[in-house]
Amino acid sequence: MDTLSLDGRSLRLEQLQPLREGKPVRLVLGEGAREAVARARALVEEHVRAGDVVYGLTTGFGKLKDVAIDAADLEKLQRNLVLSHCCGCGEPMPVPEVRIAQVLRLNGLSRGHSGVRVELLEALIRLFEKGFVPEVPQKGSVGASGDLAPLAHMAAAYTGAGHARLGGERMSAADALAAIDEKPIILRAKEGLALINGTEIMKATGVAVWLAATNLSRAADAICALTIEAMHGSLAPFDERLADLKGSDGHRRTAANVRRCLAGSGVLASHADCGRVQDAYSMRCAPQVHGASKAAIEHVGDVLSAEINSVTDNPVLFPDSGEVVSAGQFHGQPVSMALDYLAIGVTTLANISERRIEQLVNPDLSGLPAFLTPDPGVNSGYMIAQVAAAALASENKILAHPASVDTVPTNANQEDHVSMGVTAARKAREIVENTERVLAIELLCAVQARDLRDELQAGPGAQALFDLVRSAIPKLEADRYVHDDLQLAHELVRGGEVVAAVEQAVGSLDS
Fold it and tell me: Residue 266: its pLDDT value, please?
C-alpha cells in the first residue's frame, strides 16, 4: 500500500494514480505539518477569545460578512454554513474522484494557513483510511468561492449529514460513521469554512482526467503506429531531423514513440519505394498533431502540480505576523482554463484518430476489402464503427467549447466573477472517455487490417499491440455483435494495457 505524506507542498500528481485506480492508500501528516497547523489554530483561538470581529472566524459569510457572531454561536455558525451550502445537484461524483478530493483538501489544510485543529485533520485521515467516502453531487459549483456546494456535501458527511459509501454500499452518513465506530465531527470556529472554501472538486476531477490523458497520449502514438503499418505508410515524416527543424518537444516525443513501435518493420521496408508519394495528413502529420496535444497535457500537468499544493481557502492566516488576510485564493480560473486547454488537446487526438479510421475502412484509400470484412456486401464489417467514432469526435467538438470564458454573478453580486472550473473538469472527463473509445475503434480496425495483410513481420510495438488485441478479441470473419468488441477494446485502452504491452516490447513511451 502506498503512503502519502501530506504537508501542502510536495504532493505529486503521479502519487494520486492509485486512488484513480481504486486502490487503498495510507495518509500521514508530513514533517512540520502538525506544528504549522497548530500555530495557525492558535491564532484563530486568540481572536475568538478576544472577541475580535474577523471575517470567517467570528462573522457571517459572503454578503453577510459584516454580521458579527457571538462566541457561543460559533459552532452553530459552522454547522449551519455547511448544511446551508449542501445544494449540489445531479449524479454523485465517481468514488475515485471523491477520494482524491479528500486527500487534496487534507493536503491544502496541512500547509498551516487555514486555522483548523490538528485533531480535525487526524479525524479526517482516520475516516479516509477506514473507507468512508462522502457522497458528493457533481453539479452546483461555479468555481469561484471555491467549490462550495460539492465541498459542503463532503464536509456535511463528516458531521453525520447526507450520505456516504462504505465498501461500495450507499447509506446515510450517520450510519456509515457508526459502522466504523466514529462519531460525527463537531466543527469549531473557522473549520466549516475551511472545509468548503477550496478548489478541490475541480482539481480532483482534473487530476483523474489528466492521469487518463497521459495514458491516452502514449496509447495514441502506439495505435497510430499500427495504423501506419497496416496502411503501408511511411516512417519518413517521423525522422528525428524533422523534429529538430520543428523545434517542438511534443513533436519529438511523438516521432520517437512511433519509430520505437515500428523499428525493423518488414512491412514498411517492403513498401519503402512504392508508388505512393505521401501519406494522408492523419498519418503524416501525427508528430505535429499528437505533439501539440502532448504540449497541452504537459502544461496542464504543470498547473495542476502547483494547484494541488496550494492554499485555496479564505481567509488565509499568517501565524508569523499574526495577520488574517481575506483574499481570493479560492478562485478556480487557473484550473478552469487549464482543463479547457486539456479538453482541446484531447479532442484533437479523437479528431485525427477518426480520420485514420476512415483511411482504414475506406477501400478506395486502403486497398483493402470494404470496411475490413473479408466478405463485403453480405457483411458490413466496421462500417458503423467508423460512424460511431465520427459521432464521438463530433460530440467532443461541442464539449470542447470553453467553460472558463463563462461567468455569472452570485451571492448578491459579492461573487461577481466565477470560473466554472467544475464544469470544465466534467467536460474534460467526458472528452477523455470519448477519445478513449475513438482510439479503441482505430485499434480494432488497425488490427483487422493487419490480419488482412499479415504476410510480413511487423514492428515490435505494432506486433505487441496486435497480439494483445487478438488475445482478447478474435478476427472479424463475419458480422457479429460488435458492441462487445468495442467495449473490450476500450478497456484495453483505458486500463493501460495498450501502453503496458507496447512498453514491454519497446521500452518506455513518452507522454
Answer: 84
Confidence class of residue 274 from pLDDT cuts 50, 70 and 90?
low
- Residue 481 is among the residues annotated as catalytic for this protein: no
CATH architecture of 206-308+339-506: Up-down Bundle (1.20)
- Three-state secondary structure call for residue 91: strand
The domain ranges of the chain are 2-198, 206-308+339-506
Prediction pTM value: 0.96
Statement: residue 275 has pLDDT above 60: no
Rg (CA), the chain: 26
Determine which one of 55, 281, 341, 382 is catalytic. 55
Q: State the Cα–Cα distance between residues 241 and 395, nearest whole angstrom.
A: 37
- Best CA proximity match to 452, nearest among 436, 437, 435, 466: 466
Pick the CATH number of 2-198 from 3.40.50.300, 3.40.1000.10, 1.10.8.100, 1.10.275.10: 1.10.275.10
- Half-sphere exposure of residue 461, counting CA atoms within 13 Å on the CB side? 30
Pick the residue with more confidence: 276 or 456?
Answer: 456
Distance CA(314)–CA(59), nearest Å, equals 13
